[in-house]
Amino acid sequence: xxxxxxxxxxxxxxxxxxxxxxxxxxxxxxxxxxxxxxxxxxxxxxxxxxxxxxxxxxxxxxxxxxxxxxxxxxxxxxxxxxxxxxxxxxxxxxxxxxxxxxxxxxxxxxxxxxxxxxxxxxxxxxxxxxxxxxxxxxxxxxxxxxxxxxxxxxxxxxxxxxxxxxxxxxxxxxxxxxxxxxxxxxxxxxxxxxxxxxxxxxxxxxxxxxxxxxxxxxxxxxxxxxxxxxxxxxxxxxxxxxxxxxxxxxxxxxxxxxxxxxxxxxxxxxxxxxxxxxxxxxxxxxxxxxxxxxxxxxxxxxxxxxxxxxxxxxxxxxxxxxxxxxxxxxxxxxxxxxxxxxxxxxxxxxxxxxxxxxxxxxxxxxxxxxxxxxxxxxxxxxxxxxxxxxxxxxxxxxxxxxxxxxxxxxxxxxx
Amino acid sequence: xxxxxxxxxxxxxxxxxxxxxxxxxxxxxxxxxxxxxxxxxxxxxxxxxxxxxxxxxxxxxxxxxxxxxxxxxxxxxxxxxxxxxxxxxxxxxxxxxxxxxxxxxxxxxxxxxxxxxxxxxxxxxxxxxxxxxxxxxxxxxxxxxxxxxxxxxxxxxxxxxxxxxxxxxxxxxxxxxxxxxxxxxxxxxxxxxxxxxxxxxxxxxxxxxxxxxxxxxxxxxxxxxxxxxxxxxxxxxxxxxxxxxxxxxxxxxxxxxxxxxxxxxxxxxxxxxxxxxxxxxxxxxxxxxxxxxxxxxxxxxxxxxxxxxxxxxxxxxxxxxxxxxxxxxxxxxxxxx
Lengths: 415, 337
What we know:
CATH class of chain B: Mainly Alpha
Number of helices of chain B: 15
Number of helices of chain A: 20
Largest interface: A-B, 31 and 28 residues
Strand content of chain A: 15-25%
Oligomer: heterodimer
Low-confidence stretches of chain A: 13-22
Largest sheet of chain B: 2 strands, antiparallel
CATH topology of chain B: MetI-like fold
Structural class of chain B: mainly alpha
Low-confidence stretches of chain B: 1-43
Shape of chain B: flat
CATH superfamily of chain B: MetI-like
Distance between the termini of chain B: 24 Å
CATH architecture of the largest domain in chain A: 3-Layer(aba) Sandwich
Largest sheet of chain A: 8 strands, mixed
Strand order of the largest sheet of chain B: 1-2
Helix content of chain A: 40-55%
């Protein structure tokens, strides 16, 4: 509802300002609901300062892909789209996107754009997507509960053993306080927060080009054992086993969870919606130290054949300016330009700095069938994580997922 | 020979009553207009040829609706099923490749197997609850209307809303069943009903029975009420017990009502989707993926619209075949009417 009101207000604003500049071009842009906080702000700022205008539509997360597909088939697709970056390869592969290689490489700051975004935005050596908004996975802990449990509230866990030990101490406070939380039936949540544990320890679940599933590794096994041991010791609420992501953030925000893997978005959300929670932000560690992160967010892609390319480029230029990057950072996205990230974040919550660093060195798996492999609630990854965290047959579940994932990769359209 | 006498006396008057029932339930608009109103008026105006033409005019709106919202989409689905039709990008003709792929799609056949299992269990469960309820509320007695309303109420809730409600009721941390049992001291540790197959499956069955039994009850009740009272009385006088009366009078005379309720229940269950999507997401561990759920996944998660269309056609054929079999099983007995 709030989105709808924001959208209506925005449309009204766009219409109003459009009247004054009759010759101006208007480009239509879509964003998923995750961007409903920062996107209207930056579009507003752009529209106030420019003759050409942007008309923004906010689409529910789950509907934006089918809706865009239907609109593209009917010739009514928006001029550009802020697209979950993991979908860029499959969109580019389907021939739906404008090749923006030359323009992208002409940007003076091209080299300092978020590498994870540029990598997923590149298909067969051509660039189809450029970074727009960013979110990186981090580990958050509840300082109040750490203090009550006799732990140093200013020091988050730095390796797996510390995660388990700290969670156990917090859990010992008893009552409805639990040590650790993760969404045990949510593929998207766990690719975001669980695989960094594996990456930080030197393993991976897909080969670099996405052509091989590599689940059978000691690092994956070790990370599974970490979660299993915490489940076994009852450090995790029973609801985690069936949480499809609805409580991914809400569980920690309720204030009775010690440690939870989460994302940079949680900083903005906790600060504005749950100001009473005193929390710390640290990196997702490897088995014996080190760290990694999933660099997520949205790529900005242009619909093939749009006539509003000039407006779209002008808007993206604005978003990449210091003013644009600051607006994004203030309302919940990390900066995507590494060279001015520090400036854009300098007046904001210092905990953002950790997330920005995680973003800069974060990883993003690359696959044209990411949705089928990972995000689908019925895909092999989601099924495997649920089985290995809570089931009895860990080896069988891994072997089964390995086989299913490889067959999905092999059956993907090769164009 | 009380029993033979009983059977003979049952046949004709019963069928007479039943004979009207499908008309009043099935297609009220079409049958009444076409058979009752149209002919006399047409006869006054013109000859037999134009009479039919006018009849056609009367059913035209209904026919137009059926064509626009059923026949054309069905044709398009069949057409799409012969293509490689991704959600985005170009589509091209591939003949029957999608259908060949279905033959090898073990996950679809597993989903279909589960759907069959679910249909059998839930239909039995619905009838086991709805039939006694129908018998209970059929006769006027104090508070009958109140009971009818109570039992029927869940039927007016949409499946999606009902699923959301139960999704909360079944939640282990913040729901009703598990926390209530824990607080009352019935269990030592909260039990996550949705974490393993058996409790999750039976929770869904309970939810569907709660939701649908009231509707089936009303259908069965109308069937019960259409049985003439004098037949039952005659049987009582002939010395038939309650069980014999149920078997020899109630059941045969409710044949058509049962067919309707059964087909509605079976068709509804084979198309089950909402409750498994909203409450279980096909889990635990993909064990509750139904056929429609798999079609949805193929079409809108994997973006293979053509393949989804082919799966839909297969499901349609299965559903039509099953309905025909049920109609045949519950057809009018030989020698009657």
